[in-house]
Design goal:
Length: 491
Amino acid sequence: MSDTKSRAHSVNLWSLVALIIGSTVGAGIFSLPQNIASVAAPGAMLIGWVIAGVGMLSVAFVFQILAHRKPHLDSGVYAYVRAGLGDFIGFAAGWGYWLGSVVAQVGYATLFFNTVGHYVPIFSADHQWTSAIAVSLLSWAIFAVLARGVRQASVMNFITTAAKLLPILAFIVLTAFVGFTWDKFTLDFWGDSTGLTVMQQVQGIMLFTVWVFIGVEGASVYSANARIRADVSRATIIGFFSVLVLLVAVSTLSYGVLTQEELANLPDNSMASVLEAVVGPWGGAFISFGLCLSVLGAYVSWQMLCAEPIVMMSVDELLPRAVGKTNAAGAPWVAQLISTATIQLFIIIFYLNETSYLVMVQLATIMYLLPYIFSALYLLLLAVRGQGLAHPHAGTKFDLSGPEVGAGENRRHLYIGVIAFIYSLWLIYAANPVYVLLGALAVLPGLLPYVGTRLAKKEKVFNAFEWFIVALVIVGSIAGLWGLKTGALTL
């Protein structure tokens, strides 16, 4: 008994910090200089990072607080949304998180082959279909491996984490001491030449800042295994600010090497191009190698993990039970097959339309926002009324009680929930409307298996609040399709 207990509480402070950094620092940081410069000057960039820092830290604390207040909810981040706002809202959040991961997979692979294409011309932008075929083969090969129950080894996690951090740290040191010039950084500091106001520029970078922070809630997932419960809060703060320093340093130093216009015209792996401008071709090759190894390792992990939301929803009977079916090796092969087939569908759609990595990032981020905004709303409901909304299932209680919370602590939770909720709403407002409407369109197909599952179980499908959300999804989907058809909306 004591041995089991010691293993269950074996994750120390620095392991939790490593989990946050490892899960948050991914492919996004390598394309950050170009992404930020495409919409903002240095002054607006710094304001944007202040807003993102406060907002994303509040989001991280939302998940940590919910993990403490509702320790029995262990079906992923969507479980909080389901418990607080009902089955359909929980389903929509889980479905959105799943599709966001699918779109992100295509984005990761696109960035990988675009980087390889700089050195191997057959994968360059002039050979889109070569890259599309390569991405498809990679996805199906990984599916074949995952279907056998093989999991990424810890040594691979260490290698890919080192592959991410070493080039980033080298980039920061070299650009800071060799390439950075104050005159270039302050040139058109507020972006007067862009014709955009400072707040328009800040608005433009918001989704990019969320994209590079995905995974910051990682410590809360392991809170039950923490050696000391207070380490979860400490790890969240240490890990968050460590990541924030890396992100701000990369984006800030880049403006001191190249002008905003030069940065905006760089390829997707823009960090490599910036370092190449500082130390020559070897710098770009060094960053590119780190990016490729990092993305390739992460691609395997995320293809495995992106099936988890639909597996969990199948276990919770929001999707047909067959979706969560496992094989003799213990792998959820049906969910993996569905996810890989969906990745293949998006590969075809994106490459037929010559969709850029930038577009994939923004669409994926909108989908990830669903569990963020609804989880913040659940925390607000807990702080104000002590429970979530009623579920369609009469007599079934999902919002189970947790540890007692004092008045002062509850008030602190309320403040954090308010900040996270307002920040999440601001992100929706700041996004290009086309991504919001395409997000609604992406949720729409999920209605078919969800409603079918409900009817098969002879259960009430929607309550009044859920009908309202369904109506918004349908109206948004129609508006998105009409806008794309008429040209009123463009990617």
